Amino acid sequence: MKRSLPYLLIVLGSFIYSIGLNAFIVGNQLAEGGFVGLSIVLLYKMSIPIGASFLILNIPVLILGWHFFGRKFIIKTMLGVVAVSIFTVLTQHLAEPVHDRLLAALYGGVICGAGLGIIFRSGGTTGGVDILARIVRHFFNHSMGRIMFASDVVVISLVALVINMETAMYSLVALFVSSRVIDFVIEGISASRAAMIISDHWNEIADRIHTEMGRGTTLFYGQGGYTGEAKQIVYCVVSRDEVVRLQQLVHEIDDRAFVVLNDVNDVLGEGFTR
What is the pTM of this model? Predict the structure, then answer.
């Protein structure tokens, strides 16, 4: 069951993505980035179904991906491509015209982002530019993020030229919202905080974190940039609901201590998610 779960989640994510795509993006004459964006342009201008054009566009890219990265990498991508192609056909009747296209862009971005986030978190992709970006990085060592961003810019520019500027601008809003939701689904709301504590009473602070909070600490050697004095920096990770207690503990020992808190994701190890 555990082995099949990622594949089931990829199918689920593809279904959710297809609903957002048809109900709000296509249903309100908006567009997307990447190969899906090209498929939408073909739908608007030539009435070619998204599922068909998306699958056809991906076939040569999947062959290249198989050649460069092997079967193990490409199998989940193939599942994502086929599932999206099928579900976009099955959900094409779900168009949900909204009186405000900005709202449509927001709804579409959230739902599409949720679906894509589930796919990506399960180790799959929807093919297209993702594979091309990996191939380009393989040969030229360019950033995947930059390549994918450039592809979206090209597609949205095409939308502006072929359809109109207003559609392109609303589509950019949908893309931005979608990217934020993808990050949220993949990384989640930060459940933990990392603390760096600089204090002359580092030994007592570390000891009380161990005994009173049951958390481990790591000590870093530091040096004051202005004074040149040697410093011991206490580093520890706590859950969100322990942050106030940590601050109180440090303040009780040294009210002049310097404390820096950062959000952290996917903390692995004793006392946290494994």
Answer: 0.74
